[in-house]
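Q: I have two molecules that I believe assemble together. Could you output structure tokens for the complex as a whole instead of separate predictions?
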Amino acid sequence: MSSPAPPPPRGRPVLLTGLASAALLDGRGDLELAREMRGAPTEWGGVFGQCVRLTGPWRLELGADGRATSLPGSLLTESSTPGGWRSEHAWEGFRVTQDLAAVSELPGVVRTLRCERSQGPPRSLTIRSSFAPWLLPVLVEGIRPHRFRFERRADELRVRQRGFGLALRSNVPARAVRVDGEPRAEERWAGPAAEVVTEHELAVAPGRPADIRFLLSGGLDRDLDGARSAATSVIADPAASTRSVASADLAWEAATPVLRFPDAPELERAYGLARAGLRRLYSAPGDGLTGLVAGYPWYSALWCRDIAWMLPAVLWLGDVDWARRTIDSVLRFRSQSSVPILGGEPGELPMQISPGPIFFYGTSDTTLYYPALVAAWRRHAGLELPADWSEPLRSMLGWGERRTDPATGLLRNGGEAEAISTATQALARVRYGIDAPDTTIWDSTDRRDHAIDVQVLWWQALRAGAETLGDRGERPYRELADRLAETIRSRYRWEAEGYAFDSIRAGAPVERVRPNALRAVSAGLLPPEDGRKLVRRAARDDLTTAWGVRTLSSRDPGYAPEAYHDGQVWPIATAWAAEAALAVGDVDLGFAYLGTIARQLNGEPGCAHECYRGDRPVPFDACFLLGFSVAPFLATLFERVWGISVDAAGPTVSLAPRFPPTWRSASLERLRVGSGTVGLDWAPARTRVTWSGPGTLDLRGGPAPVRILPGGVAEVPLSADGQAS
Amino acid sequence: MGARHLGNLLSLVRQGLTVDVEFGTRSIEALVWVAESVEEGVYASGSLARSADALRFALDNPPLRVGAFSTLRVYVDGRPVAADLVTFRPGVDAAWRSAASVSADRTFDLAPGTRTEFELKGSYGSSGNPLTVRLELRTASVPPLVWFEFTETPATAGPGP
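A: Yes, here they are, computed for all two components at once.
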């Protein structure tokens, strides 16, 4: 038997997900994952279900004849498997194969140890499972409850904390249960618990492998009883459960577009990795909620702003049904009244939603994304606006109007956290808060009162309102949008810097160079020459580094390389820069930015870090996978590189590809447009377009509109710079 | 009960009813689970104790945010306590440290589930009366100030460490 290999370095994240579950581990055998967070080491390994962190680290120990080893201490190999992860271990003549998966039948994680001996007498192997119960939604990222209620049943151990609960079951009954070292034999008890241990005995004889299986599941305590049947099935056949996760992933991927970039294989590979990353964030955690979690490990909840950045990519990947259900889930929690303790105002959409349901409001921007998303969904689906979306859409726009300065048309951002703090003061025995005066996408810095990207969002929301609801009645959305556009062009122009002001506060411009101004370029709000100047300015080395775009210029007095929103490099900001560069026709620069993101995705397979230090390309205070870091990159490939816009109601597809002048070919297959799919095969002299139907497809972008019959093919002359040749 | 407190309670009732009507009773229940978990999860209730020359208390979890804190300030009844009078130890096996030693280079690291004990040298308030203790912390990575305060009547404790 070979000797155990030296354990791999701690910290390489392995993420396994089902639609309501996640397992986080470091690839050494146990569910433990120490990560730097906010500058300090924090343990994030464990089991997550229904957006609730069920456990801290969950470890299995092997014991025989008075000796014991951890799984990491006996590791031989580890590898990803379809739908799961496998590790192989050797110790004291035992060979142990562990299979691990986050299951889809219920919120939980299943572990199977197949234990074998090749020779010698039969021996007893003790498996000791230990975990730290947690049982709090991830939205409260830094708190682990201390007191729990326990119930020992014939087939499982239940642990509860208020309305949250977990169940641990095994096919090999526990011979002992200990909590914090104390044996527990009673049926029910309550008290503090830092470590819950169960011991199981397995007889292992040569040629007769013995399996022990564990299922740790949970989330909402009230759902545990309803999941008993599913739990019984999973523990009986974990491999079927793992296959189910794998086949769902494969079916999803098989329905998404295939992009080929023969002149940039690294970009093509990055597309596949980003798409796979986005899939891992898909979530249907229960309580009728559908969406995508923001990221792992510490944003594994449904954050509605983050969802808004992911849904355009979901639509381009053809999953209009998931997008619709996600928008439905968010709109369901639109506040209809003023609820200051939750930060909600009429028409406002929530910042976060979780099963419970648990939801909070209090951002300046989340609501503003959704009118444009509703319009985008309609264009991709080719369907009428769902009847129950019209009224929410109007009330969202009404929320924006109430925050708008009638004199300038500018929307006010900031003040939400202070309002919540004021509302909750004197209501509780303890009081707490974070003095963040502003809650835009960069919510740890103060960008009051009129941050430029918030104005762009508001303009997009108003335009979407006009497109979707029309300009009837008392809400001339287009007129409001036009006035706002004029204000943005006239009041944010920063002539001396060749840039745009970051915000306007108390009537005065805020002179800070941030990437957020690039959003005005991508939206087409600035005159072309101003847009080009702004893009070139952003490309200077105080904002753009070799590993991406900073949240604030390094020349700014407030710059700090480790500050989340005042200096760190964010891939989403890099994607904004790519999009803006391609929007103004600076193809080389746009591809340089995309290349930066592609290098990160390729260099960190399975990861897409949230952010990096501003002074060196090291992830810092970063989730290892974030929707922000994959979805805008994906959407840019469709919207700016291929230059595609769709209106599936026609159906109509417009094309304006922008490829580097050295490229000789590119192709795209299986782009869903309504009920049909489009294929594109580009070469410098022409683009070949195929259409599966039904009905005819109107194609725009060439010298003249082209109509393609179902199953038909057309060739149109399109150059690489988005122009008809 | 003062008019302000009554107003707050009535406002809370009104908002609770609003959530109930718009989103159902389960929402209120679940929101209370979270609020109670935070309220009871951070300050170790009953840990505030007064000895002849110091005040002591403990936190069971970080106040809202984890991480490496570069500043730590403590107030008692609104008055700042000099950093050299504040000592703490994160975890029962850790050594006591002075708040004056906390800086960007020597951070105060707070992890979930780890009990941190504090001792404030000096005399605070008068026996039998409640005290309000406030902590203010700041990380370099996410700069906005994190604050946490509780009000409790100190128990009587023996000599400190």
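A: One point stands out. Residues 43 and 59 of chain B are 4 Å apart (CA to CA).
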